[in-house]
Amino acid sequence: MTKTESIVAEIRRRVEEGLLPPGAKLASIRRAAEEFGVSKNTAVEAYDRLVSLGLIAARPGAGFSVVSSARPVRGDEAPPHLVEAVDSVSLLRAQLDQNYQLRVGDGRPPAAWMDGILPKRALGASGEATADSSGYGSPKGYRGLRELIAARFRARDIALNAERVVTTFGANHALDMIIRRYLSPGDTVLVDDPGYYPLFAKLKFAQVRQVGVRRGPQGPDLDDLRACAERERPAFFFTQSHAQNPTGGSIDLAHAHGVLQIAETHGFRVVDDDPFVDLPGARGVPLAALDQLRNVIFVGSFSKTVSASFRSGYIAAASDIVDELAELKMITAVNSSRFSELMIADMMTSRRYDKHLKRLGQRIEAASADLTAVFARLGLATHSPPGHGYYTYLELPEGASDLEIAQRAARESIFLAPGTFFAAGPARHRPGLRINIARAGDPRFVAFLKRLAVAF
Fold it and tell me: What's the CA angle centered on 136, arms 134 and 137, to 5 degrees?
């Protein structure tokens, strides 16, 4: 076992044997590091794992203690909220397993689409990665990258400086930090429906109640959002301005204004998770452009535009929010990857990033046109026209089972993403399939679509 696993196993044993009864306070991080002869970072990681197992809990200002309902958590008796969270990301597991020849339901573009953006030798010429002697650096992340991010926002007429940006290990890490810092079990939030399924899993794991808001071709249904806000009194609304996952639709000006107006009236914040904001010619209106990041928390990522293996993203928000999230980041992860952030900053300053984005946008446009022609020829309808971003959502007839269609495709080694996974709740779910336009041009998938269209 690793040092972290050894600490987890030992503390778990003490809990199971009653040596640490419910409510017992654990040693501080510093004392635990001394007791087990490890670094503070290793002790923090071990305590985080114990929290995720439901054995201990962090009490603000009071350290860590054994939870009142702590029991041995074995494979056949995981906490219900953990089971729900794991079930929700089974689609993600299928993407990571790489067991399909065709991956039309995948959330990422083909690796070939990213040729030329990653340097062959990572920052070998500059030497900055090895010459830097500042240790972990600021918990907000590498300042050079944060300044470049802020400059891109200012180019979109959004007032932002580097102190209002904190870097993360991608968008999912950013969402996790926001949930950890500002939400508690039993809180209610609003989400797009259909929406981003990894977010649903995080909310279930945090035991936060989620209520779906219908997503239309131009953005959230404003009448539905208003009704949900009046009825539910939510703390947050999680949405996406550009190329929403899974529908591919973007928010227009009228809907952007309406979302912010409803949020101000009912006193909730808006989290805008927008991994495609940097793509040139982006259709739609970023919520941050109207709000100027007063009530909007913006989540960005380079994983969709550079590489899925490049776990790097950021949060842009009001100063107090960024300061609080930077503190949480320091507690839970010490810092994000300075090396990755140096590489991304190098891509930006050398203009390789913008040149790559231009090529990527051209590829998306061409693939969208080809897929639109296929859909039109087969009489298939989509939630929103394919366009900016990787996704479109193929709508299926009422009564069709998107899960059965995905299973049928799997027998032909075609991976599809059924809309069931993207539904915030079963009541209003309409069957559909998320299609990655970057992967949909293969003749075998087109042949599958033809058979599907005939069956309907």
Answer: 60
